[in-house]
Write a structure and sequence with these properties.
heterodimer, A: mainly alpha, 9 helices, about 0% strand, disordered C terminus, B: 9 helices
């Protein structure tokens, strides 16, 4: 079975030409091997999804060490509840949904400790100092100000390239709700960028 | 084109769709500063998002995650096994206690243990169940026969026990005074002091049999009438002589 197979994900490109984790591997077979306790299958599943889960946790929590802890919690929960996964549905939204829920729980726990929350605000390493460093900082700050639902759909769509249907499955909401949240999240980010004077020299004909 | 349509076009472009710019759109942007700023900000946002550095997980994160998952899996398996063992142990102990209670409690040991009362009751022939249509008089007669049989047996056994007590008494023991009823033996007629233990034994037998049947008590009383009195006189009547 899978003990002799490789679980290396195939490379793909998402909406913004960023290397993405699109894979053509059959999720159900991998999950069956994981349930049998095959270490190679467990390793393959972790390596396939750890990047997305970790990136999502960092963007939502804005703290790298917390993101590592939450990523570990997410994978523990994934393997504990793997038997409850519906094999008729894609695996990725299910995993991302667990990650979003764990981040929300973590944020609610952290919000009860305001002194810790303040201390953690800027612990995510910022972009490298170059021409667009300020713009990237502003975008990250704008995303960080969004409420958790808006932030989740914004990150899942614009940074992880997930389609609306998968985001809806991960969030447990209808697609229309996800579109509404994303629409409002974009307006809030754009409003902040305008207020911060980041849009002065750009011409409208540069739109795609 | 109005501002609402322009915003929809903006959202579509932010979705990544390639929407060709129409003359209406260009015209609206030229005249609407708010929409123009929004579209300019969208360009900035898309450009910034493209340049965001990818968040790479730490190199050792994968190994740590796999180790944590395997450790958690092993821990859960051990816990499950422990729960199964505890469950089986509890079930076995409960079963053992139930079996011990069934085989070791006195009520379950056998017929030669315990008071004779239930034996007598068990030896009484169980009356047949009345068949539908069987006359009531027949059932009543059977019940009466059973009660009479029980009374006779109790009387005979009581008499046997009393004879054994009398036989065990010393030969020099004086006789009981004459009495017509058993109750008269307990009062006033003076008895020889050596007869007191015998009298007390008789009373004990009588009291013990009170709950069994009134006929048994009467039998004891009749038997005591036959005992010789303290002055050597013979009792006047014998209840057991025809």
């Amino acid at each position: 079975m899978f003990a002799n197979e490789t679980f290396l994900p195939t490379s793909g490109y998402n909406l913004y030409n960023r290397p993405g984790p699109y894979v053509s591997f059959e999720d159900a077979s991998l999950v069956r091997c994981c349930l049998r306790g095959e270490t190679s299958a467990i390793t393959a599943l972790v390596e396939r999804f750890q990047g997305e889960v970790f990136g999502l946790c960092v963007r939502l929590l804005r703290h790298r060490h917390d993101a590592e802890d939450v990523t570990q919690e997410v994978f523990l929960r994934i393997f504990r509840s793997l038997r409850r996964w519906d094999s008729e549905r894609p695996l990725r939204p299910w995993i991302l949904g667990i990650a979003v829920n764990r981040c929300r729980t973590w944020l609610s726990q952290r919000s009860r400790r305001p002194e810790l929350a303040e201390f953690l605000q800027d612990t995510v390493p910022g972009p490298e100092p170059d021409d667009c460093a300020e713009l990237q900082r502003e975008i990250q700050a704008a995303v960080a100000e969004l409420r958790i639902e808006y932030r989740s759909v914004f990150v899942l769509y614009h940074e992880q390239g997930q389609p609306y249907e998968d985001i809806a499955a991960a969030m447990g909401k209808p697609v229309g709700t996800v579109k509404t949240w994303l629409h409002r999240a974009r307006l809030e980010v754009l409003d902040r960028l305008k207020r911060r004077g980041m849009v002065a020299e750009v011409e409208e004909h540069e739109l795609p | 084109m109005n501002c609402l349509e322009c915003q929809e076009l903006l959202q579509s472009r932010l979705d990544g769709n390639l929407v060709p710019a129409s003359s209406d759109f260009e015209q609206h942007l030229a005249g609407c500063q708010s929409c123009r700023q929004s579209h300019t900000a969208a360009v900035v946002l898309l450009d910034g998002l493209r340049r965001l550095p990818a968040l790479e997980p730490p190199l050792d994160l994968s190994g740590r995650l796999v180790a944590a998952v395997l450790r958690d899996r092993q821990h859960r398996q051990q816990r499950t096994r422990a729960r199964v063992r505890i469950t089986f142990a509890l079930a076995a102990s409960i079963l053992l206690m139930a079996l011990a209670g069934y085989f070791l409690l006195p009520e379950r040991r056998g017929d030669n243990f315990g008071p004779p009362g239930p034996e007598i009751a068990r030896n009484v022939p169980f009356p047949e169940v009345e068949e539908p249509g069987q006359p009531l008089a027949k059932s009543v007669a059977e019940a009466r026969d059973a009660v009479m049989s029980l009374k006779d047996r109790l009387t005979e056994e009581t008499k046997d026990q009393a004879r054994m007590i009398i036989a065990a008494a010393p030969q020099s023991m004086p006789s009981l005074p004459e009495a017509k009823e058993l109750n008269e033996l307990t009062s006033p007629e003076p008895l020889d002091p050596a007869t007191q233990p015998l009298l007390q034994a008789g009373q004990g037998v009588s009291q013990g049999l009170q709950t069994v049947a009134g006929s048994a008590r009467r039998a004891v009383g009749f038997f005591f009438k036959e005992l010789p009195l303290a002055d050597g006189r013979q009792p006047k009547g014998n209840a057991f002589t025809p």
